[in-house]
Design a protein that fits this description.
The chain is 43% helix and 6% strand. With 138 residues, the chain is mainly α.
Length: 138
């Protein structure tokens, strides 16, 4: 569903998409509260809810979400590194997969281990997880 938001950012009217879930929630809200002039009233029924009140409510919801997501984060600092080969090497790699991937993984391992142990970089012991995706760009 497309929704018209009047006097949005920059005091311009804008259209936005309203999800089915959000629409369902608004319908339930409407059935319960039956607002007359404003969908969300302010302190008095003849005034809309204040922008600052909405900002505060959204901020609090965001903080709740962040706290809930913190449980999903590893309890240690981690980094993600991606190593790729140029597409031009695909014909060679396809014919010599085992040899070339072994070379790639060994060189990456050697480089990461040498850099990670140095205090000026990480000064850490590291572990590896390898995920391989072969893309075909034809």
């Amino acid at each position: 569903m497309k929704l018209l938001v009047r006097q949005a950012k920059g005091n311009r009217d804008r259209y936005t998409i309203l999800s089915k879930k959000c629409l369902s929630m608004l319908e339930k809200y409407y059935r319960v509260f039956r607002p007359k002039d404003w969908l969300f009233t302010g302190r008095s029924p003849d005034r809309p809810i204040a922008v600052r009140t909405l900002q505060h409510a959204l901020f609090m919801k965001k903080e709740e979400w962040i706290l809930a997501k913190e449980q999903d984060v590893f309890p240690f600092q981690y980094f993600h590194a991606v190593f790729t080969l140029p597409d031009i090497l695909n014909p060679i790699v396809i014919r010599n997969k085992k040899l070339l991937y072994n070379l790639l993984f060994q060189s990456v391992k050697k480089n990461l281990l040498s850099v990670s142990g140095e205090e000026k970089y990480f000064g850490a012991k590291i572990g590896f997880s390898v995920f391989f995706i072969h893309g075909d760009r034809s």
